[in-house]
Each structure stands twice: as structure tokens, then as C-alpha cells.
Amino acid sequence: MPGRSDDLPGRGEELTRMRALLAPDRGPVFVVVTGEPGIGKSRLCAAFEAAATGTGVPVLTGRATELECGAPWALFRHVLDDAVDLDWSGGSAESARRLRALSATLSRQDPDSLSVMGVERHRVHRAGRALLEAAATPSGLLLVFDDLHWADTASVEFIDYLVRHPTRRVVTVLVARTGRLPTLLERSLDSAATLVERMPLGSLSLDDAGLLLPDASPAYQRKLYEIGGGNPLHLEILGRLPAHEVEELRGASAAVGGDRTGLAPLISRELRDLPEPLFTVVRAAAVTADTLDTATVASVAELPQEAVGVALDALVDRDVLRAPEGRIEFRHPLVRAAAYRLAGPLWRSAAHQRAAEHLAREGAPPSVRAEHLRHGLRRGDTVGAALLAEAATRLADMAPADAARWLRAALDATQDGADPDGQRAEWRLTMAKTLTVSGQFDEARTVLHELAASGDTACRHRALELLAASERALGRFAEVRARLGAELAAPDTAPDGLRTPLLVELAATDMLSGQWDSGAQQAAEALRLAGPGDRSGIAVVARTLLAVAELYRCRFSSGYRLLDQARWHVDGLTDLELRDDIGLLPPLAWAEFLVDDHEDALRHVERGMDIARRYGRSHVVPQMYVVRSVVHARMGLVPLALVDAEDGEEIARHLGSAEMHGFVLAVKALPLLWHSGPEEAVTLAARIRDRHPLRSAWWRNIADRSLADMYFQAGRPAECRALLAARPDSGPVGLGPHAPSLYAVRAEAEVACGDRAAGREWYERAAEAAASGAPRAQYGSVVRARATLLLAENRLEDARDEAYVAVEHFRAAALPVDEGFARLLTARILTALGDAHGADEELGRARRLFTGCDAPWLVRAVGREQRRAGAQRPRTRPAGLTARERQIAELVARGLTSPQIAEQLFLSVRTVESHLARVFHKAGVTGRVALARKIAEEGLPE
After folding, report:
1. DSSP letters of 313-357?
2. Cβ atoms of residues 65 and 77 within 8 Å
């Protein structure tokens, strides 16, 4: 197509605006070009591409086509094909390798390509974005997506990801017909955080239109303008017609009230006049692909390849087709669309079948043949339906919405009793999964309800398990409970082997809704009924859920025992045995998190991810991301926690689950604070507050805990207290092993708000909950709360000793963020005691801990604490020794080592060393020998 500015009359302003966007200092920007068919959108983009190339900016383009709108990733694959021609030299071999891997992933032609599931489509999006970022280095990049009104769903989701995660130095042009930009993109562009330039293209003026018709007289230009209405493509076609045909069209236009003749009739008229075999070849070409291949067109046209080659050349001569850079393609998408419609439905169906057969002979996988199979499929074609279903199954993870469309077509073709190998029920189950993963819950529920009402018990129960999982993701616990209860009461569910999986689903549902006693009862019954004839993992699922229920009911002894048993049984199962009950791994990992077995929790999450990806068990993946995010945050792996939370956000967005999305956002708030600070974290919390409250009582408890910690650590104790005060106070049941730390943060918030009495009350509740057998790390939170309370009461020496104990608890549990906060508290107490040296030591250790966690805001918080401590420091000599310091100094003078002192005083060696460092500072000495000499000569310092 023309690319020079003088080929674009009437578009000078838009092209000037576009060129300005290529400035090297511009950030990411999206340009939305809209207009009616033929108005010149693609010509404008071609001119922009030429301008970019002229300034050294690489260009990647992709055009959607009407006949590929159901082919997964078709549009983005066009972009990847374009990327092959980029210069990947200069250390970009890795980028080229990633390009090949991504292409293989999207076509599913390489078993070693990127392993993803439907709910993990964001991993493909991230890989694509990284590739574009590499292409944009160092000169920037122009990325053009043309004819988005025909774009496939998978590609639209990818572009939506790019809008929400803009790539530096990339100008992205989105082209669509007026009012036809995909709704998903309209929404993301409306809320985009980067620049969005909208360029609606209108009709040309008469003067500009005349520039397209230089050989016509002014009177004839006006006549064509009246018929074509200033549409460039319209004028181009009219300009080729004989004058008498133009007069006929003008008369027809006047007869219907002056409306201009549509483009489709004009193009159809042009094509109908083609002689044979050109007419057959142009219809066959319309069926095949956007870029034409002579062999494929010959197979579809049922003509010799040599004759088809001659016909294609003739069509290029007639400007029906064009041959830019050696490719053969239609002059305009509207020409291809007109040729396709002229073929007629029966001819088209047979032509698609011939295209599919040709591709099969060429060795193309079912995923490549699928769209031809879908268009050519007829009622009763069991072979074609089976092939289409196979293609859908292969692509279900990468493009679930398109896979569901293919499965729907296969089911339609076999609904009159034709059921190849009894596969219809399996196809329907697979379709329900793809619908769920793509967020089409309503249709998925309809399919599953139909299967759940079927006569086949095994199929019915599989459908019920899927239905229960999808309904729980939406927070519909009452519906799940009613459905499972009715099935358990059904006569044909009497055998234990059929009841056990349903009891497990019911237990999980009760626990999510906060009914811990009922959940424990259902899990215990499932464990009792599980026998050797059941699935290998079903008894372990029941045992795991019972362990979680016991922990949340604060029955720690039995909870620990059951958890150890569950862990032992899980580790004894093979991946194949575990795949059908992989849903036990998220609660198992969560239980391990609750008791601070973080390494085991991560190990089981990683194993679950691997099994889910290999066996297509996508329903458990969202929970695994959340568990891993929380565990990473607890371990101080802040960037990993944020990545997992952001992955969870993307999954919740794909699923359309507001329940899951709200939960993930709440979990994300705390590591976001540590990394980016209060502004972003509190803004996120406000978004959560404006949403509907979580229906799951279990998730709500976790979310409240995360937000409460975030508010308190962000220096907003009043908001922390308000959030916790609004919760129903039902005691530690439902809070489980983390009840002590939740009560402890409430105590600290009350003290910070000036209510020491309430602070002491909540501290005592925290201490009581910890004493019932809670994990040892919980004592760190309790003791830290006591130190905070003692500091508020000005009992500084006692506060300092308690703060040291808190530090030791967190250090022993390998919880660096908690240890860092305990050291900040210790530093504040030491500053109040006038121990500047000790405070500096604690602040330095806190800084090192937070730096190791890669938590920039926490590191800055240490700096603020250091400045505050400096301002409070007295300018007098150090204070005298405390009782504990005098005790340790005397033992040093007697020649005891630090380990011996620690054993005698029941302290850790690290605590002894901390006390000793302050003794050295106050005594004005630098070591143990000098201290012993000073004590021998002068006695203990006062």
C-alpha cells in the first residue's frame, strides 16, 4: 500500500502527530486509529511504518482477518513472523531463541516449548512482552495491530496485557472499525496509566478526494464524490468503472434517497465479472489464508497448480491481488471478504474440507487445521469432530476460549446420536474446563449441571467436583453445599467409593465458608470411608483437610500429628497417583505455612505446579500462586512474593472471579508496602475496601490479617485498629495458629493509639493463645507486643529485655522481616535508654536484614529511624550498666566465655554478645581483657 505522505490527502495532521511520537525521549504510548471500512486506516499506518523505518525504528505488524478470528493467537503469530526478520545481532541470540520458543508455544508444535496452563496465559503474555522489550532496545519499536475488529480472543488478551503493562519505548498502534474495537481493550485503554492518542478518521473533503482522482475532470470528481462520500477505497473503485456504470450507480443511489452505494456491492460486482478460472481461484484463495500459497489454493480450487499460478498472476494484474515483497495477498480485506461470500455456503464448506485435507497431507498439526475443520464440519462427521476435539484439547491451555468454540462445533456435529468412541461426555467436561478458565462461568455451569443430571454416576460425580471447584471460586458456598448434600442423599451414591470424593468437596466448602466444625466432621467421615478401591490420593486429601481444620480450631496437638501424617502420605505418592487429587497440595502447603514449615510448603507448591502443568489440572493453580506469595513474603523474599501476587491477579482477571481477585489484592498489600511504600499499598487497600466483601470466611481472615499488618507497619495504627475492631470476635477459632500474632498487632495498634489498657488486654489474649501450643514463631509477636507495652509504660529496661527475646524468636524461625521490625523496636528502646551505640547496632542489623529482603521502602524506614534516634540522643556520657549488664560483666571478669555465660543465664549467645557490646561502650573499653582489667582496678562502672 502507498506509504508516502503525498499519497495520503487529508491525513497530514494525523501523520504529523504520529511522527512526533517517534521522538526518542517519549515513553510508551498507544495510538487508537478508528474509521469506517476503506477510510484509509491501513494506509495511514503504512505511512507511519515508513516514517519509523526511515528514522531507524524497527517495525512489527500484524493484521487480523475475518476468517482467522477463531484461530488462536493468529494475530500475534503474524507479529512474531514479522519479528523473525528483525536484526537480532549484537548479543541478542537469546532473544532470537526466545522468539522461536514462543512461536513453538503458540502453535503447540514443540513439546519442549513453554509449559503453561489456561489459567497461566499471563506467562505467555509476559514472554511476549519481554520479547517486544528486547526488540525495542536500543532504538524503540513501532508495533501495529491492524483490523482488531477481527482479532482472535487470545491475541486480544495479549494486547490487553500490553496496555496494562506498557513496554518502554514502544509505540503501539491499534486499528479497528468505528465502534468495533474489542470491549476488553476499550476498558483497559480507558483506565490506562500511559498516554493514549485517539485518531478517528473521517471522510475526505472534496478537495482532498480530488487528489485521488488526478485524471478526472472537476465535474466528474464531484460526481464520484457524491456517490463515494469521501471514502478513499470507495473512490478508488469508482474511478476504475466505466462512466456508464457510474451513472447507473448514481441513479440507484438517488432512487434510495441519496445514500451512497455500499462498498461490498461494488467489490462483489468487480469480482463477478472475473472469467474462469480466475473466479474459482479467487474464491479458493479467500478460503485459504491471508498470505496465499499456490499449492494450497490449487488443492482448494481442484485445479492444476500450474494453472492456479497463472491465474494468481492474472489476479495481480487486475489489482484484485497484490504482491508486496514477494507475498501474494488480497488488495484489501474487504476484497477477500467479498470473494469468500460469493463462494456460497455449500461450496465454502467443501472448500474448507479440502483445505484441511491438504494441510493434513503437508503434516500440519490439528491446531493449524482446526479452523478449516470447524468451517467444513457437517452433521454426523465423526472423524472431523474427533480431529477438531483433538485440536481443542491441545490448545485448551493456550487459548481456552477458542478451544471451547471448537469443542462446541464438534459437539454440534455429533449431537444426533453420533458419538465417536463415546467421547461426547469427555468433550463436554473438557469444554466446561475451558469455559471456566476463560471466565465464561455461566455457560460452564450450564454444561456441568447438565452432566451432573446425567445417568452415568462416574461422569456425574466428575462434573460435580468441577462444579464445586468453580462455584467456590465465585464464593457460592451455599449452592455447592446444597448440590453436594443432595447428591450424597441420592440412592446410587451409597457405595463408600462414591461418597468419599463428595464428602471431601463438602469439607472444603464448609471450611472456606468458616464452618470449621462441620468441615472437620465431613473430612473425618471421608477419611473413615476411604478404602483401597478409592483414588490413591483421596484419603490423603481428607487427612490434609482434617489437619487444617484442627489447626484452625486451635487443636494444635492433633493438628500437628495429622499434618505430619498427611505430609508423609503425600510424599509417598507418585505424581501419577497424585494428579487426580492435586487439590490437596494448596491446603497442605498452607498448613505448613501456618506452622512455619516454609521450605516444605514451597516444595509442595512447586510439585503441585509441575503436576498441574503436565496433567492439565489448572483448577488448583490460582491457590498455589497465593500460597507461594504468602510464604515468600513471610520468608522475606519480597520480589518473589510480588511476582506471585501479580500472577494471581492475572489469573483472577482471566477467570473473572471477583472473589479470587479481592483475595489476591489483599495478600499483595503487605509485600507491596515493603517494596514500594504506603502510598501504593494504602491505595491498593482502598480498592479492596470499595469491592464487595469476601464471601469466604477463611479467605477473609487471611485478608484482614494482611491488611492489618500493612496499616500498622505503614504508620496507620488507627486504620489497623478500626479494621480489626470491625471483625466479629469469636475467639481464636478460625484464626488458628496465627491468632497470637493477630491479637499482638491489635495490642500494638491500641498502644500506638494511646489506649494502653486495651493494649494490655489484647496482649494478654495473645499470650494466652500462644500458650495453647501455637508455633514458636508466634511467641516472637507476643513478646514484641509486650515490649511495646512496656516501652509505653516507660519500663525501659524490661522493654529492652523483651525486645531482645522477640528478636531471638524471629531469628530462630528465619523470619527476617519480623526480625527487622523487632530490631527497630529494640533500637527505639535503646535510644530511650541513652544507649546510642546499641541502637546504632540494632539499626544496622535491621538495615542489613531489609536489604537482604530486597525491600527498598523498609530500608528507607531504617534511615528515617536513624534520623529520629539521632534527634533524640542525649549529648551526655553513656548511662550506667543495667542489672543484666553488670551480671554479664562480672562473669566476663571471672573468665567465662560467651557460650558459658549464655548457658548459665539461660540466654542465647547472640543476646550475651549484644549485652557485652553495650558494656564495652559504657565502660570505654574495646575487649574482654580490657574490661576484666578495668573491673579489677576500678570495680564495675556505676
Report:
1. HHHHHTTSEE-GGG--EESSHHHHHHHHHHT-HHHHHHHHHHHHH
2. no
Go through 264-291 and write b for each residue having 16 or more CB atoms within 10 A of its CB, e for each that does not: eebbbebbeebeebbbbbbbbbbbbbbe
* Grid coordinates given for 786: 509486650
> Which of 519, 554, 38, 87 minimizes the C-alpha distance to 266?
38
Q: What angle do CA 308, 313, 316 make, to 5 degrees?
A: 125
Q: Which residues, at least 6 apart from 746, have a Cβ–Cβ distance to it below 8 Å?
A: 708, 720, 721, 724, 762
CB atoms within 10 A of CB 97: 11
Contact 153, 402 (CB under 8 A): yes
Q: What pLDDT, on the 0 to 100 scale, is given for residue 507?
A: 92
- In angstroms, the CA 261 to CA 249 distance is 7
**738, amino acid identity:** H
User: What are the residue ranges of helices labelled H in 84-143?
Assistant: 93-107, 121-135
Report the C-alpha gap between 48 and 198 in whole angstroms.
15
3-state secondary structure of 908: coil
pLDDT digits (tens, 9 = 90+) for 576-620: 888 888 888 999 999 999 999 999 999 999 999 888 877 767 777
Contact (Cβ atoms closer than 8 angstroms) between residue 855 and residue 675: yes
Whole-angstrom Cα distance, residue 591 to residue 585? 10
Task: List Cβ neighbours of 900 (8 Å cut-off, separation of 6 or more).
Answer: 891
State the DSSP string of 578-644. HGGGGGGHHHHHHHHHHTT-HHHHHHHHHHHHHHHHHHT-GGGHHHHHHHHHHHHHHTT-HHHHHHH
Q: What angle do CA 342, 344, 345 make, to 5 degrees?
A: 140
Whole-model pTM over 0.90: no
Q: What is the DSSP string of 347-416?
A: HHHHHHHHHHHHHHHTT--HHHHHHHHHHH--TT-HHHHHHHHHHHHHHTTT-HHHHHHHHHHHHHHTTT
Three-state secondary structure call for residue 885 = helix
- Predicted pLDDT of residue 255: 44
Q: Using alpha carbons, select from 145, 206, 140, 187 the residue that is nearest to residue 167.
A: 140
Sign of CA dihedral 888, 892, 895, 897: positive
Residues 6+ apart with CB under 8 A from 433: 118, 396, 400, 444, 466, 618, 619
Task: Give the three cell numbers for residue 678.
Answer: 504506603
* Centroid of chain to Cα 222: 55
The helix (run of H) or strand (run of E) holding residue 173 is strand 170-177
> CA neighbours within 13 Å on the CB side: how many for 483?
24
Per DSSP, which regions of 25-169 are E strands?
29-35, 59-63, 141-146
Q: Give residue 210's identity as a one-letter amino acid code.
A: G
Specify the 3-state DSSP secondary structure of 925. Answer: coil
Rounded to whole angstroms, the Cα distance separating 85 from 139 reads 16
Grid coordinates representing 50?
515508513
Tell me phi and psi for residue 636, to 5 degrees.
85, 15
Which residues fall within 8 angstroms of residue 89, CB to CB, at 6 or more apart?
A: none
CB-CB neighbours of 508 under 10 Å: 25
Three-class HEC string of 82-97: HHCCCCCCCCCHHHHH
Neighbouring-strand partners of residue 61: 144
Which amino acid does the sequence have at 695?
R
What is the mean pLDDT of the segment spanning 91-111?
61
- H-helix or E-strand containing 668? helix 658-676
**pLDDT tens for residues 705-756?**
999 999 999 999 999 999 999 988 878 898 999 999 999 999 999 999 999 9
Element (H or E) spanning 871, and its range? helix 856-872
Query: Which phi and psi angles does 141 have, rounded to 5°?
Result: -155, 140
